[in-house]
Amino acid sequence: MSYTAGILQSPDVEKMGSAVAYARRIHRKLDEEESNMNHARQIGDRISDKSSRPDERIVSEWMGPEVFQHWVELRSWIEASYPGLFAPDWIYGGKKRGWSLRYKKTKAFCTLLPAYRLLSVLVVLGRAEREKFEARRYSWTPQLVKLYDETRAYPDGKWLTVPILSEDDMHEVTELMSMKRPTLASG
């Protein structure tokens, strides 16, 4: 047996090898935990705990007070504009997409996407709604027109995910929803 082979097979090297492997496992675990901690704090992360549907307290804590105010205002607007028409339903879209609150009668009206410090609204524009959008193209903000233009059209329509960052965004989203389905007060 060569000198090198003897050293590599000695009990001290075996112990050292297992210690190195153990240290690597510890470092990987710490890296994963740090990644999970950092990941849970990124703006836009979704509520993804499948074990229970989110309630208003959880949504409020996750979004923060300013964004949660938009959530409350938008839900109130939907209830006032379409009284008794839609039954909001929490749906779970998997670990990546998390929980969302869908408003639907027979077809989906909109889906609210609560996220960490962010609220977005998903509105699907079918063929008729796209024609209405195009007819009013120059009345929308440049940001919404850009989003519309960059969103791929599927057979069932364009799936616009609009972030609500201000009262102006809120107003534009309610205009978009009113275009999709006229409010009962105006119908």
Describe the structure in your own words.
It holds the Pfam family DUF3788. It comes from Caballeronia novacaledonica. InterPro entries: DUF3788 (IPR024265). This is DUF3788 domain-containing protein. By secondary structure, the chain is α+β, with helices and mostly antiparallel strands. It has 2 domains: 3-39; 56-180, Aspartate Aminotransferase, domain 1 (Alpha-Beta Complex), CATH 3.90.1150. 51% of the residues lie in helices and 19% in strands. Strands 1-2-3-4-6-5 form a 6-stranded antiparallel beta sheet. Strand 3 and strand 4 form a beta hairpin. Helix 3 packs across helix 4. The protein is globular, with a radius of gyration of 25 Å. The model is unreliable at 2-8 and 33-38 (pLDDT under 50).
Strand count, sense and barrel status of the largest sheet are: 6 strands, antiparallel
Structural class: alpha+beta
Proportion in helices: 40-55%
Q: Approximately what portion of the residues adopt beta-strand conformation? A: 15-25%
CATH fold naming of the largest domain? Aspartate Aminotransferase, domain 1
Order of helices and strands: HHHHEHEEEHHEEH
Overall domain count: 2
Q: Give the radius of gyration.
A: 25 Å
Give the overall shape, derived from the CA principal axes: globular
In CATH's first tier, which class of the largest domain applies?
Alpha Beta
Mean pLDDT: 84
Number of E-state strands: 6
**Total helical segments:** 8
Low-confidence stretches: 2-8, 33-38
How does CATH name the architecture of the largest domain? Answer: Alpha-Beta Complex
Assembly type of the shown chains?
single chain
InterPro entries: DUF3788
Organism: Caballeronia novacaledonica
Pfam family, one: DUF3788
Protein name: DUF3788 domain-containing protein
